[in-house]
Amino acid sequence: MLDALDEARIREIAASPASLRQFLHGLPGVDQVGAEARAATLGTRSIKTTAKAEAIDLAIRMIDLTTLEGQDTPGKVRALCAKARRPDPSDASVPQVAAICVYPDLVTVARDALAGSGIHVASVATGFPSGRTSLAVKLADTRDAVDAGADEVDMVIDRGAFLTGRYTDVLAEIVAVREACVRSDGTRAHLKVILETGELATYDNVRRASWLAMLAGADFIKTSTGKVSPAATPPVTMIMLEAVRDFRDATGRQVGVKPAGGIRTTKDAIKNIVLVNEVAGEDWLSPEWFRLGASSLLNDLLMQRQKLRTGRYAGADYFTLD
């Protein structure tokens, strides 16, 4: 159990490279075999029909419906926003998704298309997906997204700095990006910090990066950009859920989790919801605290939902392509 951490103690840890290193390397180590075995066991939990229907609707409400391709166009974003508002035009009972996630230059398009819906607009920033650019460019990228109307910013950490032990550099960059999320009226876009866990090499590094991001003020910690494999594996998501649970126990501040990349089926989504319930707890079972970053998951959820409702599977071409 970690000792209680107040703001003064966090500032003290962050102020010294030696203190930050000592804290991060003093976190409990991850038993790789045990973590993988537990995640696999939780992934086999069966869910009854009624609970499955509720889980499918919850998963839909948790989706950050995403398009992050070089060939993205305003028309594609508007079509995706229409789907976010009404995932199945034939069934008004299907809930809306949590957010649309796009590149900064398409934030205005998404904001206009989603006006009045309550669906958030998220934007990647900071030289996504590599993060290989100067801090000045990263901050400008963030401000562009926020000024365009982004409610949420998904930034990527400097994995090179993290892997070479320059933890204070990573922390300072997150703090600076968080400050760039402040709007002219004093309100702030929420900051999701992408760890790109597929490049962190070990589960211990995943735990350290999770704590580092939270100490820097992240509102969410996110597994991946979706551009690197492996992405959101169950053991990695489980370790990040343990981290947010322990962080809240230590500080009193709750942080969200967003697995992204490789979550394509209803089975994948339900496995993640089970992980949330069993590891972090019910307090994280809402779109406010848990998101699923996905581009192709929604159609499978809609197909499974219709199967539960009617007893028949719709064809793969019944729903619009994302």
Q: Can you describe this structure?
A:
With 322 residues, this protein is α/β, with parallel strands linked by helices. The protein has 13 helices and eight strands. It has an eight-stranded parallel beta sheet with strand order 7-6-5-4-3-2-1-8. It is globular, with a radius of gyration of 19 Å. 46% of the residues are buried. The mean pLDDT is 94. GO terms for molecular function: deoxyribose-phosphate aldolase activity.
Spatial order of the strands in the main sheet? 7-6-5-4-3-2-1-8
| Continuous helix count | 13
- Briefly, what CATH class? Alpha Beta
Distance between the termini: 43 Å
Overall structural domain count: 1
CATH superfamily annotation: Aldolase class I
Count every beta strand, where a strand is a DSSP E run of 2 or more residues.
8
Overall geometry: globular
Rg from alpha-carbon coordinates: 19 Å
Hey, roughly how much beta strand do the residues contain? Answer: 5-15%
In terms of quaternary structure, the protein is single chain
Class per helix and strand makeup: alpha/beta
